[in-house]
Specification:
By secondary structure, the chain is an all-alpha fold. The chain has 9 helices and 2 strands. The chain is flat and about 65 Å long. The relative contact order is 0.10.
């Protein structure tokens, strides 16, 4: 009976934290809707071209979608907090410290991925794709408003998410789910996998693909180094 009640209490606790998280997403999405004009002006400065709409409802749907995406990004700290509060009681003190460090590192890596793509990769990629070498003389360009904004967001989030894998690897190493020998042996395959992932998530240009794949490979090597130094796995 006690175990059944304990399970029910866990379910109720999870439902409560999910409810708080949904409220946070709703609140941050409203903020995203309000700040959308500033976000749009920022995008236009990077693109330096006019955008066009092809459907009368495109502006409304795009603003709603971007507001939700901004809301999801801004709600990440709430997600991290609720996750920590839910899972930490199940671990001992040392494990709690390790998990807190890994979760904090995950958030920092996500922000670094967005900043890196925003300040370095995206401007270079847009400049490369707009090169006159790829367009015949006197050819005009009509760039879709909805498509480019979604592409912009996808680009940023892809970089942020791809830099999360070191946290996953280090967590698996710490809890001995993954062995160091296997991690080292998989290195040669990971190089190919990283370029494959970069090719899927970035525009079809070598510059942006390399600028995503190379940091992933360096972080993989860093995971091996940290695992060896701390004797994990």
């Amino acid at each position: 009976m006690n175990s059944e009640m304990t399970f029910i209490e866990h379910v109720l606790e999870l439902r409560k934290r999910l409810g708080i998280l949904l409220i946070a997403i709703l609140f941050t999405s409203i903020i995203g809707y309000i700040v959308f004009p500033y976000f749009f002006n920022f995008i236009i400065n990077i693109l330096s071209e006019e955008l066009y709409v092809t459907k009368i409802y495109e502006g409304f749907l795009t603003r709603i979608r971007i507001a939700l995406l901004i809301g999801l990004l801004l709600s990440i700290p709430f997600l991290i907090y609720e996750l920590i509060a839910f899972i930490l009681p199940a671990f001992n003190r040392k494990e709690k410290i390790i998990i807190l460090i890994l979760i904090f590192s995950s958030f920092i890596l996500f922000l670094c991925g967005i900043y890196f793509s925003l300040k370095m990769v995206l401007p270079i990629s847009v400049s490369f794709l707009r090169s006159e070498n790829f367009f015949p003389t006197n050819l005009g360009r009509i760039i879709s408003y909805d498509s480019f904004i979604i592409f912009f967001f996808q680009f940023l989030v892809s970089f942020g998410l791809c830099l999360q894998f070191p946290v996953v690897i280090l967590t698996l190493l710490y809890f001995k789910v993954l062995k160091m020998q296997k991690l080292i042996r998989f290195l040669k395959y990971f190089v190919a996998v990283s370029f494959l992932i970069a090719g899927i998530l970035t525009p079809p240009d070598v510059v942006s693909q390399s600028m995503l794949a190379l940091p992933m490979i360096l972080l993989y090597l860093l995971c091996i180094l940290i695992g060896k130094l701390l004797h994990w796995g």
